[in-house]
Amino acid sequence: MKRIVVGLAVLTSITPLCMTALRAQTMGNEPYPVGFGIAAGATFPMGDLGDAQGTGWNVEGLVDWTTPQTPLGFRADLAYSDLGGKTVTIPGQPDVKTDTRNVYQLTGDAVWHFRPSTTTTPNPWTPYIIGGIGVYHFGDVTATSTSTQEQTSRGSSTDFGLNLGAGVIYRLSGFSTFGEARFHNVFASGSSAKFFPISFGIRFGGS
User: Fold this and answer.
1) What is the pLDDT of residues 55-70, one digit of tens each?
2) Which of 41, 127, 168, 204 has the maximal Cβ count within 10 Å?
3) E strands in 4-147
């Protein structure tokens, strides 16, 4: 329940910024280059992280800068993922059940939009690729033996990582929607932590 409240708080805190950007976009004839958005979706852990944690969910808030004059834009994201618990089977040993684990991330990315060079009919669809660096904080997690109830804990950690993904924007009147998939590789101590969120959201402002 605590993690759900955290996720809802992120969305609530970002919404007023989105509405401010929407009002700014309607002022004047020039497109407003700064956009705001919120998104949510599923997070799939991979590799060693996927061995210990199950599929979870994510919420995020974003701010970006883009103009019609250039396909290159920039974006910053603040996101939260809640990775599900999982029962891990180890041959010759009792099964172990892990708790849920939270992940906070702050990323800065470059975005390349694939816009047609010339067109007579406006196209509401804009595919894009995105990639950059970020800081990731993994919360602690407890693993419990299903037979002996013995518990082991792994503490929290903060590490740097890279991300790369792609998405598509669909523009509507006054706002746009988008879908996106990104691969994150975090250089955690001992081994890399990999996860793959898929998100859908709404965006105000920008161009």
Assistant:
1) 999 999 999 998 888 8
2) 204
3) 34-46, 54-65, 72-84, 87-88, 96-98, 101-113, 125-138, 141-145
**Rounded CA separation 65/74 (Å):** 5
Per-residue model confidence as pLDDT tens digits over 143-186: 888 888 888 888 899 999 999 999 999 999 889 999 999 999 99
Which residues lie closer than 8 Å to 147 by C-beta, 6 or more apart? 94, 95
pTM for the whole structure: 0.81
119, 106 in Cβ contact below 8 A? no
186 closest CA partner among 86, 83, 49, 72 = 49
Q: Which CATH architecture has domain 2-205?
A: Beta Barrel (2.40)
What are the structure tokens assigned to 179, written together?
């879908």
Extents of the domains making up the chain:
2-205
Rounded CA-CA distance 161/185 in Å is: 5
Q: Are 62 and 205 in contact (CB under 8 A)?
A: no
Q: Which helix (H) or strand (E) holds 12?
A: helix 2-25
Residues 199/41, Cβ–Cβ less than 8 Å: yes
Q: How far apart are CA 191 and CA 51, in angstroms?
A: 13
Q: Which residues contact 186 (CB under 8 A, 6 or more apart)?
A: 136, 138, 159, 160, 161, 192, 193, 194
